[in-house]
Amino acid sequence: MDVFVPRTLDEALEIKAARPDAVPIAGGTDLMVELNLNRRRPRALLDVSRLAELRRCGREDGAVFLGAGVSYTRVIAELPECVPLAQASRAVGSPQIRNRGTVGGNLGTASPAGDALPVLAAYDAEIVVATRDGARALPWAQFLVGPKQTALPPDGLILGARWRIARGPGSFSKVGTRNAMVIAIASLCLVLDEEQRAVRVALGSVGPTVLRAPDAEAYAAEAMARAGTWDDPAALPAPREIEEWAQRVAGAARPIDDVRGTAAYRRHACAALARRALRWALEDRRAGGRA
Q1: Strands 22-25 and 44-47
Q2: pLDDT at 28 over 90
Q3: Model's pTM, two decimal places?
């Protein structure tokens, strides 16, 4: 196995162009498991952990840019205002895993159960990728094309994710045998965008890739408009509307039965997570909180 250790992004992209079979590695929290269990044996590794361009993190021109090499620990410390992302980062593994694991790794692995992916979907994030010919941004739904499949070109690297800053509360939650160090049976991210008066929700671990629920999103936004919630946080949608919202979210799921849970249980979990997330967001608005 060849191991390449570039010091600059240009050098890394030159190597990737010459060796498309080189598998990028940063934290290694997924890849090293596969190597140790002999499930995967790439011909070459490309260590991208030293690339400064992948470690950028913060606000840029009214948006947030999160470099592919930023660890979950840094997300928690440096992006606390992005509440759903910070919550998802806290749910990832142990402290040791959070110190090494990266959102770029979640994107590269493209597992439907990746904790950060529903958050990026709910943020309507774009994924920035680069080749020797330059960088371009892809909407998250075009980047994540299937289970463990992405639109990253063979000679490309993930630079990071970028999204517009939305004013309004949000949350990330998941169902598993415990809160951390577990693969989610179902996960959900909710974001209320007060400027656009929109509700965005994304589901993880209940389909071939991360899913949005546009029918449920439109229903919730309309229910809040009818109740006057957007203008008056104390005016809440009726309980039956919150329940209808939860069932519409569950209806967007495309789960299967596996060793971690049945399809029926996953749909039930989606409804429960959706119900709680919307109530949390409405309570946060009423209390004057902002995400």
Answers
A1: parallel
A2: no
A3: 0.93
